[in-house]
């Protein structure tokens, strides 16, 4: 389990000892990180439908059949942190381009519109601006990551912090 999630999950546990629905969703996302194909970052996401069933998980990594970061096939994965800091391009363009899709992208690409309608996307980390923009174009109702719940209304992300 991801260390920074453990405290959040413990505080969310119901009085009867069962996991809360948020704990369940974040736990499913945390489990998905074990499949991540990246040398630098392990991110997981999970889709929970309105009936609280977790129907999809995703993780960061190259598209199926694509180059593998863990096998040394991602240009960004071969660079040191110092080399990355010196780049003048974003993470997905130029000489240090990352080959991975984000965990949130993988979930949204695999989910049907029906599955996403009114559902919640859980992520182990705050979604990047590109993933937020993508999620506002879907029928998702919420995005939740450690410490934050964001409602998605009329193409806008409305985050609310919690602890």
Please identify which CATH superfamily of the largest domain we are dealing with. Answer: Cytidine Deaminase, domain 2
Number of strands: 6
At CATH level 2, the architecture of the largest domain is 3-Layer(aba) Sandwich
The radius of gyration over CA amounts to: 16 Å
Q: Please give the share of residues in helix.
A: 25-40%
Structural notes for this entry:
The protein has 163 residues and is an alpha+beta fold. It has helices at residues 3-12, 21-32, 81-85, 103-110, 113-116, 129-136, and strands at 44-48, 54-59, 120-123, 142-145, 148-153, 156-161. Strands 2-1-3-4-5-6 form a six-stranded mixed β-sheet, sandwiched between helices. The chain starts with a helix and ends with a strand.
Concise summary:
With 163 residues, this protein is α+β, with helices and mostly antiparallel strands. It has helices spanning 3-12, 21-32, 81-85, 103-110, 113-116, 129-136; strands at 44-48, 54-59, 120-123, 142-145, 148-153, 156-161. Helix content is 29%, strand content 19%.
Which descriptors apply to this entry?
6 helices; Cytidine Deaminase, domain 2; single chain; 29% helix; alpha+beta; 163 residues
């Amino acid at each position: 389990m991801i260390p920074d999630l453990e405290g959040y999950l413990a505080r969310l546990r119901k009085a009867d000892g069962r996991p809360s629905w948020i704990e369940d969703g974040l736990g499913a996302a945390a489990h998905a990180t074990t499949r991540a194909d990246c040398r630098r970052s392990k991110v997981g996401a999970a889709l929970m439908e309105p009936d609280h069933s977790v129907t999809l998980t995703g993780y960061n990594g190259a598209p199926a059949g694509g180059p593998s970061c863990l096998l040394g096939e991602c240009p960004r994965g071969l660079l040191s942190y110092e080399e990355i800091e010196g780049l003048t391009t974003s993470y997905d363009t130029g000489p240090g381009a990352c080959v991975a899709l984000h965990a949130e992208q993988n979930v949204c690409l695999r989910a049907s519109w029906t599955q996403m309608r009114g559902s919640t996307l859980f992520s182990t980390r705050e979604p990047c601006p590109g993933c937020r923009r993508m999620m506002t174009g879907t029928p998702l109702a919420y995005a939740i990551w450690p410490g934050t719940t964001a409602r998605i209304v009329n193409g806008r992300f409305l985050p609310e912090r919690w602890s």
